[in-house]
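stuck on whats below:

***
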Amino acid sequence: MIFQILYFKLKYLLPPNFLYQLRVKKLFNKINSTIITTKYDSFDPFQSLAHYKTNKPEKDGLFCHRIFGPIKIGICACGNYRVIGDEKEGPKFCEQYGVEFVDSRIRRYQMGYIKLTCPVTHVWYLKRLPSYIANLLDKPLKELEGLVYCDV
C-alpha cells in the first residue's frame, strides 16, 4: 500500500523519461538459477500508438507502416507513391521509411513482430491439441506448461 502511494506520487512529480530510466526489472531465471536484469530497451511503453492530432500511426510505433503495411494502396507515410504492377517485378520499398508498396488490405492479415524484453508465448500455440510448441521442441505438454507458468 505504501509502495503504491509512493509510486503514485513519484509518477506525477517526476518527468516520464526519468521514470523510464529508473525502470529496471529483475527476473529470476529458474533454468540457470541466476538473477537476470533486463532493461526496457526494445519496446518503449511511453511511445504513442497514433499521432494525437492527425490520428495516423507514429513511426516505429505499434501500428507502424513498416510493421503492418501502408494504410492507402501504394502510398507511404512520407508521401512517396508507386503504382503497384506485376508481382514478377519483386517487392518495392520506400527509401526513406522502408515501407513496402503493396495493397492496403495486407494490414488485415499480415502479422507483425515486436521484440519484447522477456520471452512470451501465446496460449493458442501452447494449449491447442496437438500443441505446436510441444511438437516443435519434442517435449511433453505438461513439462512446457510448467516452464511457461513458472511451476518448474
